[in-house]
Amino acid sequence: MNPKTRPTILLVGNDPTLRYLLGRFVEQSDYALAVVPVINSAQEITEINPKAIIFLSTEHLEKTQPLIVELDSLEVPIMLCSSVTEETRARELGADYCLLHPLTYEDFQTTLALASASKHP
User: How far is CA 100 from CA 34, 81, 84, 88, 108, in A?
Assistant: First the structure.
């Protein structure tokens, strides 16, 4: 598939190891990858037009709380990389899906398929 026509997955955060792992998963799934350390505006997301937004940590999702209503109106699934113990907090912060540690390609694929079928679980 042409890289310019592939749907984009947006990663938010600055964890190089997790970014690398998810980047490989995104590449194997035939998506394009965009990475930003933080989201500054909903307009920034609109310009990227991602198929899904993946926050690399709960802290990154917490920093985005002032924009969460705007992001929700964009109908883009919000995913969070988290542990089982953080899953409830992730949902409270607006995550539609959680990618639970330890991350596997199979879990990534399943979550992405669910997100593609419907924004909200």
Answer: 21, 6, 6, 12, 9
